[in-house]
Amino acid sequence: MKKFINDPNDVVAEALAGLAAAHPELRVDHTEQYVARADAPRSGKVALVSGGGSGHEPLHGGFVGPGMLDAACPGEVFTSPVPDQILAATKAVDGGAGVVHVVKNYTGDVMNFRMAAELAADEGITVETVLVDDDVAVEDSTWTAGRRGTGATLLVEKIAGALAEEGGKLGEVAAIGREVNAASASFAYALTAVTTPAAGRPGFDLPDDEIEAGVGIHGEPGRRREKLRPAGELVRSALDAILEAKPVESGDRVIVLVNGLGGTPLIELYLVYGEVATVLAARGIEISRRLVGNYVTSLDMAGLSITVTRVTGEMVRLFDAPVRTPGLRWGA
Amino acid sequence: MDVALATAWLRAVAESVDADADELTKLDSAIGDGDHGVNLRRGFTAVAALLDGTAFTSVGDVFVRAGGTLISKVGGASGPLYGSAFRAVGKALPPGPAVTPADLVTALRAGLDAVSALGGAVPGDKTIVDAYRPAVMAFGEAVAGGAALPEAAAGAARAAGDGARATVSLTARKGRASYLGERSAGHQDPGATSTWLIFQALADVTAP
């Protein structure tokens, strides 16, 4: 393992210290381990709190700021935060208008956020939970833990965060978050396995000419192993799975996210975006907005995910609204 | 079981998790995300520190506080699941410095119910339940048949081990391994394996 770290046990705490040093506009509570807007709580504003295992940066701490999240709770690497942490963040940013928890659909995240929401309710804070489960690589989702939350998390946090910023009520903010999730589908490929600092070695062995299709963002193996194929073919397979799960008709408008998993150069992400644009154009689908870059990552994994979200005019308007966070910043 | 035996059990779990952390992580890497050993080690190290710094007068309190510590320190799914299990065990025990094997039967069942309610897993889903349930059943049958604690604990550990080994052939339907579908078959479930460690630790500390 070669990483820019000191001690594997200190990676999360030391990265938080660095985030705090780089972004004085954020308030990092090192004891409770959460990142919050420095101006939180904002009275009368619905607060958004998210969180999850570390290793997906800039998700979630990098999306804290005006127009997006009020707080984020980073857990250990690939491990959900604990209820105490989520409760502390929820209390710190509650402005009296309620709090929306944006939770990626993983067994641990769901349990810990549920416990925190119950504890918050005991203290008089109303919490609405928006569950993100956009990864269509998970089949038989009725009989399993369900689809995973991946790239769509970014869009849920951006669009719901914008509505909260402009004064949306708790129910409205949660509702649009759920609508964005329901309209989203993602699919990911990995070219390499991920190495967590604690494990010190790759999570699985992958021969030079093979890839994992339908991979998650925690180094867990994918749905199946395939031979490497040209990017255009991989994109068409991914879009087939995405558009089968969440049909998009000719004339519909979408937001597309081509997301690097941490170890993929931008030149490849743009190449892939070009392939996505070609396929969608041929189907008569209009790409209203797009993001190409590393947003929901998996440490050093070489790979990418494609997310397609069928959008309304209101979602596009909220997507365009000003945002000022370390990981996403425009119009403000 | 008295307070001393309860704390000895949890210390033995901490030692066993520490010793087997790499093995748990290896199992978890195959079908999960490879952090089960690290997370449980962090949690039970905190439990051992709690035991060092606290004088308990009630067996139930030992488990309630240990469970709370696991919930606060472990994260992931295993933190809430094991934490809730130990809390439920502790709450189901009558107050006082000692409890009977029959009390433990009731309490271990309450722990199993807590895990099942929180995780929604049923037998055969390739989870903690696949080791926990047979262990509780074996423990209950042994106690009902008049067995003393050491014998009942040894039977529970054997049943947990059989249950954990039997997860190899199962396809995961809950937890992170479920994303792999049929690819999860052929690997022993890390959660069932750590449950086995917990019951084995009970058998070890009660062994005459």
Automatic annotation (TrEMBL), chain A:
Report which reactions are catalysed by this protein. dihydroxyacetone + phosphoenolpyruvate = dihydroxyacetone phosphate + pyruvate
Q: Which UniProt keywords apply?
A: Glycerol metabolism, Kinase, Transferase
Q: Please give the biological process terms from Gene Ontology that the record holds.
A: glycerol catabolic process
Q: Which GO terms describe its molecular function?
A: glycerone kinase activity; phosphoenolpyruvate-glycerone phosphotransferase activity
Q: Which PROSITE patterns match?
A: DHAK (PS51481)
GO CC annotation, single? cytosol
What's the EC number here?
2.7.1.121
Q: Which InterPro entries match?
A: DhaK_1 (IPR012736), DhaK_dom (IPR004006), Dihydroxyacetone_Kinase (IPR050861)
Which pathway is this protein assigned to?
A: Polyol metabolism; glycerol degradation
Q: Where is the DhaK domain?
A: 7-330
* PANTHER family xref list: TRIOKINASE/FMN CYCLASE, TRIOKINASE_FMN CYCLASE
Name by which UniProt lists this protein: phosphoenolpyruvate--glycerone phosphotransferase
Question: Per the UniProt entry, what species is this protein from, by scientific name?
Answer: Actinoplanes xinjiangensis
TrEMBL record, chain B:
Q: Which UniProt keywords apply?
A: Kinase, Transferase
GO biological processes: glycerol catabolic process
Q: DhaL domain location, by residue?
A: 4-204
> Which species is this UniProt entry from?
Actinoplanes xinjiangensis
Checking InterPro entries in the record gives:
DhaK_L_YcgS, DhaL_dom, DhaL_dom_sf, Dihydroxyacetone_Kinase
Gene Ontology MF terms? glycerone kinase activity
Task: Please give the name of this protein.
Answer: Dihydroxyacetone kinase-like protein
Q: Which PROSITE patterns match?
A: DHAL
Q: Mind telling me which GO cellular component terms the entry cites?
A: cytosol
- Name a Pfam family for this protein: Dak2
